[in-house]
Amino acid sequence: MARYTGPVCRLCRTEQKKLFLKGERCKSDKCPLNKKRGVPGKDPKGRAGKRSEYGLQLREKQKLKRIYNMLEKQFRLTFERAQKMPGITGENLVALLESRLDNVVFRMHFAVNRAQARQLVSHRHILVNGKIVNIPSYQVKAGDTISVKEGSKKLVVILDALNEVAKSGTAPWISVDVDAQRGTFNALPRREEVTDLADVKEQLVVELYSK
After folding, report:
1. Which residue among 71, 126, 165, 208 sits deepest, i.e. has the most Cβ atoms within 10 Å of its Cβ?
2. Same domain as 175, residue 202
3. Domain of 120?
């Protein structure tokens, strides 16, 4: 199963935006963006040129792809599926990304970031409707119950991650029982509900792939 194995802070520096790929570290003073680190590979004294229309579309696609911890082929397939669905393609794309199992595990605070959530799923710690599912890209449906396997409920990484529920709550389309380490995916989210993507312009991604 292919995945990105390079330094993730470099990805945030490339986009000049916090993608929250390392959980709590991204909120701390250790984040390179807090130290005003420049774009990797660029002369810090160099002058940034004006981006072309294609450049803006590409950066938006890369940003969204990296937020959800995906590589190009899988992201493109998800877009093509969104295109075939009724409704607005960009909103469909966000809904499909949000209903990936690794993302749902992250949203339920069983993991501190999507990479850790992907690992929990791959290592068979997560159940969907009572059955083990070890495919991170599995599409969760409205009404599905996601839970931690009984033998994994004492894992420190999961217990630590669940502390975030009390601090920041959960997404409005998800409900979580912290004590039972179980949650329900109530419905596909509406675009305006995904507030941490407020500055993402998914329409630019649609325009890029539609060329």
Report:
1. 126
2. no
3. 100-185
Give the DSSP letter of residue 54.
H
Q: Give the CATH number of the domain where residue 174 resides.
A: 3.10.290.10
pLDDT tens for residues 141-193?
999 999 999 999 999 999 999 998 888 889 999 999 999 999 999 999 999 99
Nearest residue to 161 (alpha-carbon basis) of 128, 194, 117: 117
The model carries a pTM of: 0.81
* Model pLDDT, residue 180: 96
Nearest to 138 by CA among 86, 97, 175, 84: 97
Token pair recorded at residue 21: 């790929």
Amino acid at 99: S
Burial bucket for residue 86 (CB in 10 Å: 0-12, 13-18, 19+): exposed
DSSP string, 8-39: HHHHHHHHTS----SGGGGGSTT-GGGGT---
- CA distance linking residue 17 with residue 34, whole number of Å: 10
How many domains, in total, are found in the chain?
2
* Residue 192, in any domain of the structure: no
CA 15, 21, 23, 28 torsion-angle sign: negative
Please determine, for residue 207, whether its predicted confidence score (pLDDT) is greater than 80: yes
What pLDDT does 50 receive? 77
